[in-house]
Design a protein that fits this description.
- It contains 14 helices and 20 strands.
- With 454 residues, the protein is α+β, with helices and mostly antiparallel strands.
- It folds into 3 domains: 100 residues, Rossmann fold (3-Layer(aba) Sandwich), CATH 3.40.50.20; 70 residues, 2-Layer Sandwich (Dna Ligase, domain 1), CATH 3.30.1490.20; 240 residues, D-amino Acid Aminotransferase, Chain A, domain 1, CATH 3.30.470.
- The strands form 5 sheets. Strands 13-12-9-10-11-14-19-17 form an 8-stranded antiparallel sheet, with helices on both faces. Strands 3-2-1-4-5 form a 5-stranded parallel sheet. Strands 7-6-8 form a 3-stranded antiparallel sheet.
- The longest helix has 19 residues.
- It is globular and about 60 Å long.
- The N and C termini lie far apart (60 Å).
- The structure holds ligand MV4.
Length: 454
């Protein structure tokens, strides 16, 4: 096992990684920007190093400063968390070159899955369903138009180097394909330095269902079931739950086996997520693989009993997977139901960030309630980073109990000084479609922001 892990992140996930390290009796090193000197992730670590000014590019993305911090504190491993450098194959490579262990997949895996057209090809080769579309990047607008005519409309153009909704265009006619192909390619070139574009048939109202996978150094791969992530706005997830209300045990087994097949075929090591689109008729299609621990990992922890961050650390230390130890015949079955609400500091009308001083902070507790947060009373939320205040994760024996607990916990979660998305979550948890489990990626279109009173 490691002696000392450098946590290359901030906020709630830095605290979450610190908790896992403590339980494994591994020492921790925090890094922080000048804006985060008073942050809990700094207080709770054994050691801390200031790595630069507030802007992310000068601090949490400053590879040279982070590696120097690891060197001077004698760390032997780096955990990247999510966001920032978590999916930088170059950073993972440099960590290894500094004789540090990267707590995550090998750089080649990050690179493979970071190229969305390559990831799609790898999935298809592993016998995982993909939507009808191009076999790789498209060479020209005319090739795109010809393929779209074959597939039928609508189609979606995606940047190979994009992902998470960046660099996508939906086309409903040949003329739109013709037009959008060049703008999409130019935008991808500008944003990612890679103009490659591929195409798929477009599903109009799917669900986003993703599977948690784990692979160890010995080639063992398992899944820990799925998370339903359809409730999102502008590609930002707002609420996630496990299991998905849409999955039967049979569909879970089928999708889980597909996720494991892809993960194993890529020789993938550590924690990952296979994202699927699930159509109304129960057809599912590979979308992307995320090569990091995700924001919504706690819902999987609550229905599996597995500490995913500890499992990541053990895998990186060369230990064999044990996460399936409690499952009947090694086959995962969710225990109860969990719901996560992402509580952001944002204006309820515009969804614009609402940073500033938190004057009152009373997080809820009680049976089945978990709050992952770095916020405390009198903490000042800096304007430089994401606006996540806390993740409220509630567990129940079934979905109805998880909903009741989430409603109760939201009603008694007091945050003053900044605007938060708590009222939005209260409305979602009372929505008849939500309660019935009728979800799709278009769910939030029916939730217009309340109009400002004048
Ligand atoms: C799609 C799609 C429908 N059909 N691909 C959005 C994020 C990026 N990972 C891919 N995305 C989508 N790809 C096909 N062929 C719909 C989306 C999509 C979406 C997916 C998951 C969650 C929310 C979404 C919101 C809009 C579009």
């Amino acid at each position: 096992m490691f002696k000392r892990i450098l946590i290359a992140n901030r906020g709630e996930i830095a605290l979450r990684i610190n908790q896992a390290c403590r339980e494994l009796e591994v020492e921790t090193v925090a890094i922080h920007s000048t804006a985060d000197a008073e942050s809990l992730h700094v207080t709770y670590a054994d050691e801390s190093v200031c790595i630069g000014p507030p802007a992310s590019t000068d601090s949490y993305l400053n590879i040279t400063a982070i590696l120097a911090a690891a060197e001077i504190t004698g760390a032997d491993a780096v955990h990247p968390g999510y966001g920032f450098l978590a999916e930088s194959a170059d950073f993972a490579e440099m960590v290894a070159e500094c004789n540090l262990t990267w707590i995550g997949p090998r750089p080649e895996s990050i690179r493979l899955m970071g190229n969305k057209a390559e990831a799609r090809r790898t999935a298809a080769a592993a016998g995982v369903p993909v939507l009808p579309g191009s076999s790789g990047p498209l060479a020209s607008a005319s090739e795109a138009v010809a393929l779209a005519a074959e597939l039928g409309f609508p189609v979606i153009l995606k940047a190979s180097a994009g992902g998470g909704g960046r660099g996508m265009r939906i086309a409903r006619s040949a003329a739109e394909v013709e037009n959008l192909f060049s703008t999409a390619s130019q935008e991808a070139e500008r944003s990612f330095g890679d103009g490659a574009i591929y195409m798929e048939r477009y599903l109009v109202e799917p669900r986003h269902v993703e599977f948690q996978v784990l692979g160890d150094r010995f080639g063992k791969v398992i899944h820990l079931g799925e998370r339903e992530c359809s409730i999102q706005r502008r590609h930002q997830k707002l609420l996630e739950e496990a299991p998905s209300p849409a999955l039967t045990p049979e569909l879970r087994r089928e999708m889980g086996e597909a996720a494991v097949r892809l993960t194993a075929s890529a020789g993938y090591e550590n924690a990952g997520t296979i994202e699927f689109l699930l159509d109304l008729d129960g057809s599912f299609y590979f979308m992307e693989m995320n090569t990091r621990i995700q924001v919504e990992h706690p819902v999987t922890e609550l229905v599996s009993g597995v500490d995913l961050v500890k499992e990541q650390i053990r895998i990186a230390a060369g230990e064999p997977l044990t996460a399936d130890a409690g499952f009947e015949g090694g086959v995962f079955e969710p225990r109860g139901h969990a719901i996560e609400c992402r509580i952001n500091a944002e204006h309820p009308d515009s969804f614009a960030p609402s940073p500033g001083l938190v004057t009152t902070f009373h997080p809820p507790g009680g049976p089945g309630v978990r709050v992952d947060t770095h916020v405390y009373e009198h903490y000042r939320i800096p304007p430089f980073y994401d606006s996540l205040v806390a993740k409220l994760i509630c567990h129940g024996r079934d979905r109805a109990e998880a909903i009741a607990r989430t409603r109760r916990a939201l009603d008694f979660f007091v945050v003053e000084g900044v605007h938060t998305s708590i009222p939005m979550h209260q409305r979602i948890l009372r929505d008849p479609d939500f309660v019935a489990g009728r979800l799709s990626t278009r769910f939030m279109e029916r939730f217009p922001a309340p109009k400002k009173r004048s």
